[in-house]
Write a structure and sequence with these properties.
Blueprint lengths: L9 E6 L11 E6 L2 E13 L5 E4 L9 H4 L7 E10 L7
Antiparallel strand pairs: 1-5, 2-3, 2-5, 3-4
């Protein structure tokens, strides 16, 4: 599957706090747990009752996600992606 956000895409994201609801399927900006200085954009695949969040990339064959670094905590989630504004999505005729 091709990634929904191509490399270099420009997005609008809204910061989250502990009160912000997160749902399976949300696209989020997160700090990578093994490299906290690096922020990544991934989709929430699962949220367990203890609060661990499993992140996955849209292109599993070429994505570094929770399969490599494990689930993340809520504190790793920085923002929720609202929309992409560049490149423009393909138009349908």
């Amino acid at each position: 599957m091709a990634p929904r956000l191509p490399s270099g895409a420009l997005i609008v994201a809204r910061s989250v706090n502990r009160a912000t609801p997160l749902h399976i399927g949300d696209v989020v900006v997160a700090r990578r747990p093994d490299r906290p200085e690096l922020q990544i954009i991934k989709r929430i695949q699962a949220i367990d009752a203890a609060g661990a969040i499993v992140l996955s990339g849209d292109n599993p064959a070429a994505s570094t996600d929770s399969r490599q670094f494990g689930p993340v905590t809520r504190d790793h989630i920085v923002a929720r992606v609202r929309w992409r504004y560049w490149p423009l999505p393909p138009t349908r005729v």
